[in-house]
């Protein structure tokens, strides 16, 4: 059966949709965050409702010294950027780097030689190989992301010779680089569903991803997705247009899985009770609660107009963006629609989920261990360094400026997203050497007293007042921080 169109869903489920999009009351908000901060032991911060203009904010539950850790927070949901997948092989659940230094470098060299062979003769020779390297996935997709024995034309230049030969040996484990064992990474664990798109650092992460969202979005043989053809089209479309759609799909699938497990639990606890559709809606609303806290505005109403467009083009631009989301949702519905959870597939809901990621400005960044490795080699002395560099220097030259690209993506961090902006913030997002996965890390930029509001800067706080004002317009507010008041 084909999934119903957006208009039909909007009409049939108007009431539930408006409940999904309703801004939580200050009490509900406070209750949710106090439950969340307790569950994760984030005991040194508190999320509080401030007023109707500002909404909520984060406050210090103790005093902090400069540079002290304020919060290390797990994401609710997130994803690596599509174009970053060739730069960094990471666990799809916790985003730590996996495999080995050799595998990380080998994949990257393979991708670079691929790019060179594309640009040198101006066309793509074997599109399936290129697609697998750039993660434009299809159903059998990314087998090539870990091992891609490839034939690269030997006459294309010395760098490519090195890249292709060395890359294969590095990927296959035939070369061990000097001192790489000091930078060991967790072995690659494959997806439970048998797809070759997602890799993990442990069975634990593979299981957690499977149970929380991936079982519905997996392209492998054990997937619970209803139509893999649609799933493939959805992933392809997102990779080509906006990879935030992939994170939005995780939000939808994790809500479906959570709602259905809440329902099962209720049945188990009270098997005789007759369950109504209202009970089902309540489970859906409960599963949805974490996301309802993060909503700001509809994506197509709030996205900043590209600078090359004039005011006359605005309506057309916004309609185009809405059309893009509508097409993406249509493909997602084809893949995982469930009648019982139809309200989740409303275009309004989808637009708000995307808006949440676009407007909360929470980047996921994990530094590359390859960078640490090359720094270590560089800091060696005498003969040891000379010997090691016989191996590493050619690799470094072939990798060029891109040798240390971090893992980059989009994520939603529930507490961090509540922190208000200031151009003189008292905390900053900063990964320390020991922070090797996708958790958000917030440090104090100066001494902070108990009870003070904790703020971060959404923009470059060193920009001029005019520039800051323009940048913050995208967030929909005028900054009233001490610096802005003084400079205005
Ligand atoms: Zn992991
Ligand atoms: Zn999978
Ligand atoms: Zn300001």
From TrEMBL:
The protein, known as: SET domain-containing protein
GO molecular function terms listed in the Swiss-Prot or TrEMBL record: methyltransferase activity
Species, as recorded: Ceratopteris richardii (Triangle waterfern)
Record-annotated SET domain positions: 43-459
InterPro entries: ATXR2-like, SET_dom, SET_dom_sf
Domain of life: Eukaryota
């Amino acid at each position: 059966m084909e999934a119903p169109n957006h208009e039909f869903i909007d009409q049939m489920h108007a009431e539930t949709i408006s409940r999904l999009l309703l801004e939580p009351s200050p009490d509900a908000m406070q209750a949710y965050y106090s439950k969340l901060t307790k569950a994760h032991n984030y005991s040194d911060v508190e999320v509080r409702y401030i007023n109707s203009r500002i909404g909520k904010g984060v406050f210090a539950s103790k005093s902090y010294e400069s540079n002290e850790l304020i919060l290390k927070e797990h994401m609710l949901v997130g994803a690596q950027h599509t174009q970053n997948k060739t730069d960094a092989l990471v666990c799809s659940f916790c985003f730590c780097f996996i495999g080995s230094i050799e595998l990380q470098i080998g994949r990257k060299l393979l991708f670079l030689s691929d790019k060179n062979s594309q640009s040198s003769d101006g066309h793509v020779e074997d599109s399936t190989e290129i697609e697998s390297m750039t993660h434009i996935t299809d159903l059998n997709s990314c087998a090539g992301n870990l091992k891609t024995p490839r034939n690269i034309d030997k006459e294309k230049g010395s760098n490519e010779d090195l890249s292709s030969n060395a890359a294969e040996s590095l990927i296959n484990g035939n070369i061990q680089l000097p001192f790489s064992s000091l930078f060991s990474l967790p072995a690659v664990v494959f997806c439970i569903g048998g797809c070759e798109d997602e890799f993990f650092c442990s069975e634990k992460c593979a299981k957690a991803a499977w149970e929380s969202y991936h079982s519905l979005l997996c392209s492998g043989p054990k997937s619970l997705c209803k139509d893999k053809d649609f799933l493939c089209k959805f992933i392809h479309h997102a990779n080509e247009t906006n990879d935030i759609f992939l994170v939005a799909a995780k939000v939808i699938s994790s809500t479906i899985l959570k709602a259905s497990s809440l329902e099962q639990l209720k049945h188990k606890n009270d098997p005789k009770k007759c369950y109504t559709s209202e009970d089902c809606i309540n489970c859906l609303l409960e599963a949805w609660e974490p996301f309802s806290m993060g909503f700001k505005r509809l994506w197509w109403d709030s996205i900043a107009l590209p600078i090359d467009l004039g005011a006359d083009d605005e309506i057309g631009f916004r309609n185009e963006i809405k059309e893009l989301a509508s097409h993406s949702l249509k493909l997602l519905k084809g893949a995982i629609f469930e009648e019982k959870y139809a309200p989740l597939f409303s275009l309004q809901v989808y637009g708000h989920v995307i808006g949440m990621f676009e407007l909360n400005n929470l980047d996921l960044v994990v530094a590359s261990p390859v960078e640490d490795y090359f720094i270590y080699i560089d800091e060696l002395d005498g003969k040891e360094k000379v010997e090691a560099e016989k191996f590493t220097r050619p690799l470094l030259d072939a990798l060029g400026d891109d040798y240390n690209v971090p893992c980059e993506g989009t994520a939603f961090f529930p507490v961090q997203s509540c922190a208000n902006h200031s151009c003189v913030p008292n905390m900053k997002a900063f990964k320390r050497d020991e922070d090797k996965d996708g958790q958000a890390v917030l440090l104090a930029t100066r001494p902070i007293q108990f009870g003070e509001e904790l703020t971060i800067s959404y923009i470059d706080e060193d920009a001029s007042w005019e520039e800051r004002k323009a940048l913050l317009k995208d967030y929909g507010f005028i900054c009233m921080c001490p610096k802005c008041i003084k400079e205005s």
